[in-house]
## 1
Amino acid sequence: MHPRFQSAFSQLPADLQTAIAPVLADAHFSAMLSAGQVSSLRSATGLDEDALAFALLPLAAACARADLSHFNVGAIARGVSGTWYFGGNMEFLGATMQQTVHAEQSAISHAWLRGEKALAAITVNYTPCGHCRQFMNELNSGLALRINLPGRAPHTLKDYLPDAFGPKDLDIKTLLMDEQDHGYPLQGDALTQAAIKAANRSHTPYSKSPSGVALELADGTIFSGSYAENAAFNPTLPPLQGALNLLSLHGYDYPAITRAMLAERADAPLIQWDATVATLKALGCQNIDRVLLG
Ligand SMILES: O=c1ccn([C@H]2C[C@H](O)[C@@H](CO)O2)c(=O)[nH]1
Ligand SMILES: [Zn+2]
């Protein structure tokens, strides 16, 4: 088991500990649970889905990288496929606060990048901040997304975001997690291709500046992240954050990154290059390249 889970694991109910121990055994556990695993955990514990998600939250919060605040937020995004995706907040020392990933964004980006088509619910250990409520309002689940918080009755995003501003106000009909393909041809090595594939899936209706980042690790693993824009612009999740989030959720640390690749258009109105390089340098990665889409 990855050491970050040890303390949270030891506080789980005994039946849940026994049932989930084999899943956590791999130090690079993917931080997601298939529908089959969820159903086995339910039979082992007798918990319904909502109660099981609450019981698992300490494990999601253990995925947080809150090196500045030491305030660990955990979220579990529950996909319509039945797969559950953990998320934890990420803070990057040496970068800016704007680079932070909230736990809700972490879980949602995780689900999206793993191919989930829509979310049914999200369970979080703290009340979602305004930025996260706005981020969630970009999703194709709309205001119907169920939000479960400890000690509260289940609500929907509509309850937490009354009088909402969103994609519709800007005449945008393609939503976050809708299938998208910007169609840029693949080129180059595996890392470059992964970055282009990530860019092709990016949600970028506002700037029309697709981008993706792929990170190669010392053991050869590649994690890639797609850019996820937001109608209110600031809650946007940059492509590097998507990739770093997957890397961290899989139990890797930043020094494992050997090479980074950003894919974007040279003539795009918004450019990721400088922010991507700045954040990666703060994490100790100097080997950064860019492939131009087109
Ligand atoms: O809804 C919220 C509110 C805050 N945080 C994180 C962001 C930052 O890392 C830390 C302190 O705000 O908690 C979340 O992940 N989700
Ligand atoms: Zn938030």
## 2
Amino acid sequence: MKLEDFGYNDKLEKFRVENNLKDFEVGRVVSEHKERYIVKTEKGELEAEITGNLRFSSNTREDFPAVGDWVALTQYDSGFSLIHKVLPRSSMISRQNVGQAGEKQIIATNIDYALIVQAADRDFNINRLERYLTICNSSKVSPVIVLTKIDLIDELRLSEILEKIKVRINNVPIIAISNKSQDGYDKIKAIIEKAKTYCMLGSSGVGKSTLLNRLSGKTIMQTNTISQSTNKGRHVTSHRQLVILENGGILIDNPGMREVGIADSTGGLEITFDRIFRLSHNCKFKDCTHTNEIGCAVLEALEKGEIEKASYENYLKMEREKTHFESTIAEKRKKDKAFGKRLKDYKKDRNKKKY
Ligand SMILES: Nc1nc2c(ncn2[C@@H]2O[C@H](COP(=O)(O)OP(=O)(O)OP(=O)(O)O)[C@@H](O)[C@H]2O)c(=O)[nH]1
Ligand SMILES: [Zn+2]
């Protein structure tokens, strides 16, 4: 397989040449477990770790490789490889780190499209759709809405749902499918492009695994463990998290992806709620919160019924979450800085005492 088959492009190649990385091998991280990586190269899959240098020059977890990353690495005779550099990312999906407040955890990188999967029966929820959209918009990933289980509803209900979406969400393709009858499969297959990278976002039970299995032409979820011997006879076993689909698309499906909470949409609100943001330019006060101010263009539009009340409320809720998350990050930075200073003072002090 060529690098291009799993997503390598001219931009990455240009970076590689300009940054004197020609002596390294290039590969894509297909799985990660406790800082051990499986990297797919033209020669096959390699097991790798990062160099000490990369570790020490990393300021945050974001600088470490993640699934989807393109990396420059060296393979040693022992069959072991070291990652020297992470090539620039075109997109990044992250979530709030559950253990550490204010820390981000990268789920996957270099994703072109996210399939936002919602079942058309009980799962359908437009507020949640807006949240997933916001995740996409803040991650620089293009969204596609996929409605599954349309075999469980009638045509009237389906057109109602489609209408509901269109009132609140503009310019996002919507594909309605049934994994059971395979209705709409031609449409979903048609949007999946060769060498583009996809991921799926959606609640549990909406049909993501079923769709993935069908698109890959294999039963991946059950046979997800690959065992392959490296050229030195070492065995690499990993949970495959990057899958090449039947028509050449690439799908990232790692455990983290399934856990991207809808609370992780800390940016991208401007794009999801562009109507509200456009209106806000006409608010009397620059720092208008659009909740009780005089001369608020958003409240005026709301009163006139020009924007949906439910959408407005969803926006306010997400805006509050965003503010909260940002202040947690700011606080953490302040603490880190204070700690850094204390450490410096301590070292200075210790050095003074030496002489
Ligand atoms: N009727 C109907 N059932 C479906 C459809 N798609 C999936 N299902 C069923 O819904 C259930 C859940 O499907 P999965 O594919 O496991 O859902 P998932 O999104 O991968 O769920 P998690 O693995 O928990 O994230 C299974 O019993 C499927 O057979 C559909 O289009 N129509
Ligand atoms: Zn306002």
## 3
Amino acid sequence: MSIMKIHGGRSLHGEVTIGGAKNSVVALIPAAVLADSPVKFDMVPDILDVHNLMLILQSMNVSSYFADGVLQIDPTKIQTGHLPSKAIKKLRASYYFMGALLGKFHRAVISFPGGDNIGPRPIDQHIRAFEALGAHVTESGDTVYIDATENGLIGAPIFFEMVSVGATINAILAATRARGITTIHNVAREPEIVDIVAFLNEMGAHITGAGTDVIRIEGVDHLEAKQTHMVIPDRIEAGTYLSLAAAAGDGILIKNVIPQHLEPFTQKLQEMGVDLTINDHDIYVKKPHQLRGVQIKTAPFPAFATDWQQPITPLLLTAQSESVITDTIYPQRQKHVGQLQKMGAQIRVNEQSQIVIDPTPHLHGAVVAAGEIRAGAALMIAGLMADGETVIEETDNILRGYDNIARKLTDLHADVEVLPSSD
Ligand SMILES: CC(=O)N[C@H]1[C@@H](OP(=O)(O)OP(=O)(O)OC[C@H]2O[C@@H](n3ccc(=O)[nH]c3=O)[C@H](O)[C@@H]2O)O[C@H](CO)[C@@H](O)[C@@H]1O
Ligand SMILES: C=C(OP(=O)(O)O)C(=O)O
């Protein structure tokens, strides 16, 4: 695992350009195997999740080439076989090959995915969707066997018991090539879902309702990419830089954002007293003065994302009154708390599993570990604010989802270096 070294306390300024959304691209890549033609994506972030998905593609005889943000995938010679469980375990989104391979071949055999360790992450709703479409699903050890080879996939109504990003996308991937009409109820409305549906429709799929809570899909038997699909900007990366800019910046311009996707986040910053200039595609963050603590509750889009709760935490430490975070999606997502305490942060978990953040005028450098991607983002911002050196171990978790992180921070005049892992 790589490590990140930060010499904190510098005043950061300049501009940063946000990359394509991790949570879009990690679904777009598996979705590409549904195509009967080569596929091209632009604005693809250079993150470990993308490289691991490319390894999984290779194991299926699907060639891919990634340079300068453009990813080309040729699934026309795809062969199914045993997918490499080491790469599958390195990320969450490998589960999208379940829906994609089921859609394409009516059969998928795949081990349980990895991804961030942020509390229980069952996939019962995904399986429920595959079964509704006529697949037979069995589990043996660490492997899931999904089979609809006898009768094929048949469009059907699907009712989710809870709102799940992954289950929504997996159901869409499978139903896109099912026979007949599928309606999926109580779906997630995240912008990344709208992006994946846009990509599938560009290739000839018939999907409506993305961004609402009911999606309707008329299955098609051929998908062909006729244009390059541009990935949407990463709203979680943007939130991370917004927090960093307000916590340690002296005037930072954040470029390539969709402000509507960021509203729950920017509204919280404004409630704290951060002065933002929000334009059509960029946001300027002024160095703030007196900030107020706020109450934050995470919930599915369009509410405040769980993936933002850790990145905003270092900024909350700079407020002059207490803040409280309630994560309704992952109530145990607290890996950053103990690590921030090592840096002198006044932060704790109360009896209701809420995270309570008290005013902390100074942080000091320490050796800490990024237990998961967004905990890593919180530690990175804290390290930039702190006096002295911070060493973040397990930095691969940050590299899973933060595009060109060392270069982007250095361009903002931070003293940061990422030392690659020896394995
Ligand atoms: C690759 C990707 O896009 N990851 C995102 C996705 O993860 P992911 O798609 O895994 O998260 P879900 O939206 O599925 O999870 C939401 C909640 O539903 C529960 N659940 C989910 C599925 C299921 O079958 N059964 C079940 O109980 C989960 O435990 C969780 O409490 O959405 C999360 C919630 O916004 C984000 O934190 C992740 O960054
Ligand atoms: C939880 C996250 O990612 P994943 O679902 O890929 O583990 C995240 O991006 O914050």
